[in-house]
Structures are given as C-alpha cells and as structure tokens.
Amino acid sequence: MEWTGARYADTPTVEVDTWIDASVERVWELVSDIERMPAMSAELQSVTWQDAAARPALGARFTGRSKHRDLGEWETTSYIVEYEPPRVFGWAVQDPEHPAASWRFTLQPYDGGTRLSQWVRMGPGPSGLSFAIERMPEKEQKIVFVRLREFESGITATLEAIKQQAEAGGGAGV
Description:
Helix content is 25%, strand content 35%. The protein contains three helices and seven strands. A hairpin with a 3-residue loop joins strand 4 (72-84) and strand 5 (88-93).
C-alpha cells in the first residue's frame, strides 16, 4: 500500500483481506457481533450498544472505548451505516455524515469458503489524530503514515483472529 505523502484531508484508506475456510454465514456471525471485537483488538477495549439496541441494524449506535500507548484513552460513538447480511457491515465513527473514520467488513463466497476484507478510511471529520496534526503540522505525513501502518497491522490481527474462530469448527460447512 502506498501512503507516503498522504494527508488527513486525503481521507486515506487501508484494506486487508483473507480467505477463511468457513461459510459466509459463519463468518458473518463473527464480524457482526461487535461485542466480540475487543477480544480481537489490541486497541479496542470495550463495546456497548446504545438506545436499547442489542444487535446490528442500520442506524443502530454503539460506544467503543479504546486505548493506545501514544494517543491515550478515548470513547467514541459509532453509527451503523451499511448493513446487508451476510455481505456488508459498516459503521461511521462519531458523525455519520462527516465521520472521524469509517470501517467496513465485506464478505464474499470464494473457493468453497469466504473472502473477508476489512477496510478503514480516515476522516474526513476531526479525530484525535487530526488534533495531533494541528499541534505538529510539519509532521502530518509521518503521523498519517504511522497511523495507517497501525491500522493495517490491527486489521491483519483482527482478520486472523476471525479466521481462527471461524475455522475452529472445521471447514466451509461450519
């Protein structure tokens, strides 16, 4: 992936995918259960549904609490903006019209199993990262580059955890 020179205003993205030897339905069960995600993430600490929601649906909200060695601890509210079971699950962080970040899982049947991808886009709305950039504008490209690498590493680890859980029961028939 090419991120050198990327600026926050460019709304840079990261996407990672993997093949999983399990059915789309099995993988969907895992990716759409947001309360499982903290166990698969070094940064996300907890997730709580809002507005009496207990499951994903368009417009449903959840609060995530995160922790990062350099960025500290923070809490965000996310809005489900894409929900097409069992194919697409996406959410916008903070403001669905002008999000701090957007995230999406996409699932496709492939080669007897599932091709799972996770995608993230920075911005265009303000985030903790944009505040760091305001304090050190001369370091914007480096700040963005480092955060994109962290996203790529975190997504890769999340997809591997989902793969392991989905395949634990054995094969695409799971």
